[in-house]
Structure formats: C-alpha cells, structure tokens
From TrEMBL:
Gene3D superfamilies: 3.90.1010.20. Residues 32-48 have a biased composition (Low complexity). This is FMN-binding protein. SMART domains: FMN_bind. Residues 69-145, 172-248 form the FMN-binding domain. It comes from Streptomyces labedae. It holds the Pfam family FMN_bind. Residues 32-67, 145-168 are annotated as: Disordered. InterPro entries: FMN-bd, TAT_signal.
C-alpha cells in the first residue's frame, strides 16, 4: 500500500495541472466582453436623434412643460441641419434655494443636450428633480421636431410644413408663447404653449386663447383683434405670434 502513494500523488498532480490549464483557457474570453461593452456602450446615445424613423426638422421647437416637485421645466431647442444647435430652458424652478440649483444645473443640461443630440443626458448632481423634468421636456421637444420633419424627400408641398414657436412675450399676468404650424405659406394651426394662469387668469385664458388661435389661422398674420376682457393676454399672444411668423419667414 505504501508503494502506491507516489503514483497516486503523481496522478493527482497531473490531474490538478490539467484542470488548472482548462480553467485558465476558459477564463481568457471573460476579459473581452467588458472591453467590448465599454467600447460599444456610447454609440446608441449619439444615434438617438438621427436613428429614428424620421430625422428632426429644422427650426425652433418648445417641448411641453414637465411638472416637478419644485416647479415646471420647459425646454426649447434650435435645430439646424437635423442637429440640435442650441438648447435652453424657458421655464425652470425658481425661488429660494431653487434659484441656485437652477443656475448651476440648467447650463450643464443645455450643454449636454447639444453634445448628446438626444434626451439621454446625465442628471446633474444635487438637481435630480430639475434634471428629470428637463429630460422629459427635452424628449417632448425632440418628438415635436421629428413630427415637423418632412415625411418624404420628394419635394412636394407637404414637405414644406413646419412648426415654429415664437419668443415668450411677458405680460402683467404672466408670459404668453405661441406655436404655429405653417404649410404652403399659410398658418394651419396655432396654439399657446404658455399663457397666464392662476386665479381669474385661468378663466380669462380658457376663454381668450381658443379665440386667438382661431383668429391667427383665419387671418394668417399677427394682425388679429384683441379678445374683450383679455387685453394683456391678447397683446402678448400677438407679440409671440409675430415672433413665430418672423422665424417661419413671414
């Protein structure tokens, strides 16, 4: 029995060596996926704007306001050549500590939107709610920009439709901002993306804005009559409407 011990030890040593080699060979590929994943993780974010079924249309477009715990966030984009050339927040939380957070976070988010060309931007540390609202409104703006892009490349009249948002006009009771859709040189749709709200302003806005929208489409210009009882809202509407028409080329 004692004489067989060296043979057993030799057999066990050989088996251990073979097992070690097999394990080493099986572990080698495991280091590659990490590198491949790191190298392949970035492209999807860069392609998100152009990677959809339709590109984004040129012009200025404003996303829907995103409500957060500390106030609304609304993003406006300027698009040229199918790319975001400028991003800005037309609304952001304000008052108290929000002023400092907004002044720190918004410029970074604006820069990130232009760099990534998508709504896949990193949240700014210390501004979680503002960042989330920004991304939501940014995605809304991108969706609208895609919707306004030409549906075909045939050069027909339908390809000339564009959606443009005028500059926000400040009034005594709050800002008014108008967005229009123009096709074949005519206003086909007008809507207020911002209007005075709160208290009596809610009733005035709900009564005046639909009438102003209809008047803008009918007139095809900013030369529309003010709605009775909504003098300030009407004036702000006309100012923002003229701004939108100027951006659309008159």
């Amino acid at each position: 029995m004692r004489k067989s011990h060296p043979v057993r030890r030799a057999v066990l040593a050989t088996a251990a060596t073979v097992s070690g080699i097999v394990l080493l060979l099986s572990l080698k590929p495991g280091s590659d996926p990490g590198s491949a994943e790191a190298a392949g993780g970035a492209p999807p974010a860069a392609e998100s704007v152009q990677g959809g079924a339709r590109p984004i249309g040129d012009g200025t477009v404003t996303g829907d306001p995103a409500q957060t715990q500390y106030g609304a966030v609304q993003v406006r984009l300027t698009v040229s050549g199918g790319k975001i050339t400028k991003a800005e927040a037309v609304q952001a939380p304000k008052g108290g500590q929000s002023d400092q957070i907004t002044s720190n976070a918004v410029p970074r988010l604006n820069q990130a939107a232009v760099q990534t060309q998508s709504a896949d931007v990193d949240a700014v540390s210390g501004a979680t709610y503002t960042s989330a609202g920004y991304k939501e409104s940014l995605q809304s703006a991108l969706d609208k920009a895609r919707a306004s892009a030409p549906a075909d490349t045939g050069g027909g009249d339908a390809a000339q439709a564009q959606t443009v948002t005028g500059e926000a006009a400040q009034t005594q009771y709050g800002p008014v901002q108008v967005r229009i859709t123009v096709s074949d040189g005519k206003i086909t749709k007008a809507e207020a993306v911002q209007a005075p709200k709160g208290g009596q302003s809610d009733q005035i806005t709900s009564n005046a804005v639909p009438k102003l929208n209809q008047a803008a489409v009918q007139a095809g210009t900013a030369d529309i009559d003010a709605v009775s009882g909504a003098t300030y809202t009407s004036a702000g509407y006309k100012e923002s409407l003229q701004s939108a028409l100027d951006k659309a080329g008159g």
